[in-house]
């Protein structure tokens, strides 16, 4: 069977034929988190991302309010139709999930696409490292921390981190590999004792699923794209749109192009 | 006062005016460990270094047995006079320390210069990291481990490691910086639990001095240039020469030139 290209998958998404998650689809290509905000919030969000690049790495953004195309990630991309499943939020509360936002699109909406851990996980697997959440077939465990983000206007909050356990020698290799990918969260922010960063129970993640930590392994913590979403929800904009977790924008950019060296 | 150049320091060493350690001299320039072996051992040593590049990183070697010049590290360098203090070994036992080996030089001796942690410590300090053994004014703690080196002929043994404690976020940065310097031991080989690599008491180093490990810090272990010396001594060549610990070859190469990126 011919492998599906990102353009082919986006075409199926646009036609309403693929409305689920994108994990494992179009291996080798960058997938992105989505945040769509009214213009009145966009500058603050951009500044928040600029100040907190590890949890909020911007891969691309729309060139102006209302713009629906982002040619740098794919020539045919349309933000209104090319995400499998969206979440509509009102005043910080989830209103509903939809598979097309054409009918709610507004000329003041600004689209941001943020890097996602799928890219660096692929690089780790290619190097022969085991990623526990993939081995165990669950979502990566994510935790609220006491590490404060730099605030920007109404946007503030603590960093959310994802956790993957490794033996120390593998953790050193993981740090080297992730350092090559600053636009998908970059090097880890902590390893070892979870309490050092305000995590009281490693077996009870705040988001995602718990994974096994085996004897001789240490938990390694990476800044997580849930951070900007949590900051937005806490600030309660009157309206905003995100992707539904796991249902990402699939771009034409290859993961290897994200490597800085 | 004008800063002394490597050429000026070597001139003083050659004249017998500097016979002590070289730590802190000629900041910014590469210093090297010395191993001088009879030709009958040289190929095995070269192979041992090739198989174990982290503990045994060759910066330069003499072009042939008996050669006393190594122009690639300094045009005027002479191995017989330019090390502040040498150790002469017979059958694996220390015979004596001298400050000039002209009178014992032989046409079958092959000189190897190996990278030294001074280079990466300078890069760490330049980045604002604290190095505990420097802060506490003692030699770095070094430990025998259970990590086996790849054997080469008569040369075999376990890896010796040095240890520097860091907070996890600083350890991540230290891993990034040291990864740029493969010719001075490169990235660490372990962090965290010392028993994982066969170290039973972190407060009793096998070489060097103990340092404080503060709350929230983890010990980070790097392959150490004592490894090849220990392998040589265990193999008991009838004759060999090393530098006296801390009394290194000072080269004209800048530390920054060792960075691979």
UniProtKB/TrEMBL annotation, chains A, B:
<protein>
    <recommendedName>
        <fullName>Putative hydro-lyase RED65_16261</fullName>
        <ecNumber>4.2.1.-</ecNumber>
    </recommendedName>
</protein>
<dbReference type="Pfam" id="PF07286">
    <property type="entry name" value="D-Glu_cyclase"/>
</dbReference>
<comment type="similarity">
    <text>Belongs to the D-glutamate cyclase family.</text>
</comment>
<dbReference type="InterPro" id="IPR009906">
    <property type="entry name" value="D-Glu_cyclase"/>
</dbReference>
<dbReference type="GO" id="GO:0016829">
    <property type="term" value="F:lyase activity"/>
</dbReference>
<keyword id="KW-0456">Lyase</keyword>
<dbReference type="InterPro" id="IPR016938">
    <property type="entry name" value="UPF0317"/>
</dbReference>
<dbReference type="InterPro" id="IPR038021">
    <property type="entry name" value="Putative_hydro-lyase"/>
</dbReference>
């Amino acid at each position: 069977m011919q492998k599906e290209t990102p353009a082919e998958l986006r075409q199926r998404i646009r036609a309403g034929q693929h409305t689920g998650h994108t994990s494992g689809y179009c291996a080798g290509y960058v997938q992105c988190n989505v945040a769509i905000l009214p213009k009145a919030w966009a500058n603050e969000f951009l500044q928040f991302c600029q100040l907190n690049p590890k949890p909020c790495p911007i891969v691309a953004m729309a060139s102006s309010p209302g713009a629906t195309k982002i040619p740098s990630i794919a020539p045919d991309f349309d933000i209104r139709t090319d995400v499998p499943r969206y979440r509509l939020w009102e005043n910080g509360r989830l209103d509903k999930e939809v598979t097309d936002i054409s009918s709610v699109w507004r000329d003041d909406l600004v689209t941001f696409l943020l890097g996602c851990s799928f890219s660096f996980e692929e690089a780790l697997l290619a190097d022969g490292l085991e990623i526990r959440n993939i081995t165990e077939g669950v979502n990566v465990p994510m935790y609220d921390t006491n590490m404060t983000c730099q605030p920007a206007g109404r946007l503030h909050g603590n960093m959310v981190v994802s956790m993957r356990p490794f033996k120390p020698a593998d953790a050193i290799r993981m740090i080297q590999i992730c350092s090559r990918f600053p636009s998908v969260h970059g090097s880890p922010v902590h390893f070892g004792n979870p309490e050092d960063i305000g995590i009281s129970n490693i077996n009870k993640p705040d988001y995602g699923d718990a994974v096994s930590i085996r004897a001789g392994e240490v938990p390694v913590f990476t800044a997580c794209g849930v951070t900007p979403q949590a900051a937005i929800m806490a600030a309660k904009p009157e309206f905003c749109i995100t992707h539904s977790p796991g249902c990402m924008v699939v771009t034409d950019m290859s993961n290897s192009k994200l490597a800085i060296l």
